[in-house]
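Human: Not sure, check this?
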Amino acid sequence: MTPDYVNRGIARLDVCGPVAVCGDVHGRLDLLDRLLRALPPGVPLIHCGDLIDRGPDSNGVLQRMIDVGARGVRGNHEEWMSEWLLGKGIDAFGHMLGRETLQSYGIDGRASLQEINAAADVVPAGHRALLDSLPLVLDLVVDEVPYWVIHAGIGVNSVRAMHIDRELDAFAGEHGSALLPPTDLTRWVPWLVTHRRDELLWTKTPAASQLDVGRTVLFGHVPDRRPWDLGHCIALDTGAGKSWADAALTAVLLPERRFIRVS
């Protein structure tokens, strides 16, 4: 049976600005709290995924996001945690073990797989519900201006994959037109959600190689020491959870596109 979270494709959120969109938090509750204090009063928070792992308090980060009513999208680390909670084991994605996340719930990451999976019940129902509710993509509209919020953004690998699929489909003639990659850029995101969801979670594409799909894409996943606004995309992962001395958490205020960075 398909897990419920796989069906959380595209959610729509239509709001009046200002609104803040932040990059990967990665268990840094201290940075998240500093960011919340730095935001203008009453500004809602949206995140780009990867709330958990690396930093010391994934448990606290999930709870804080619930407390403030934040919205956001699924990251590849939330994908791992969802799989773990479904009993697929901490090694469901190879060596992305999530040991810091486990430790934040009082679970010894050095224990056996059987012991770790048996301990999953300590994760609160509210945290499970938050993870399950995260869409893959947020169709965000701020003051009538549309944006896409996608954890890994949309990179050149997606284009290559589409071209390959189109060539194979044309050669084999086995699939209906609904499975063909779209030629219209504005339709790429819905197509990727249905046919290549992993590319929106896992592919590492820096800002300079993000595609222009007709509206600004806000993304994280690729840590850099500064955020980037290239017009067609805004890169927001500034290293929270990394061991960098200057690791930071960054948000952008929309519609003015002003960065707020805390470290």
Summary: The first helix runs from residue 29 to 38. The CA atoms of residues 27 and 57 lie 5 Å apart. The domain at 10-79+137-256 is CATH 3.60.21.10 (Purple Acid Phosphatase; chain A, domain 2).
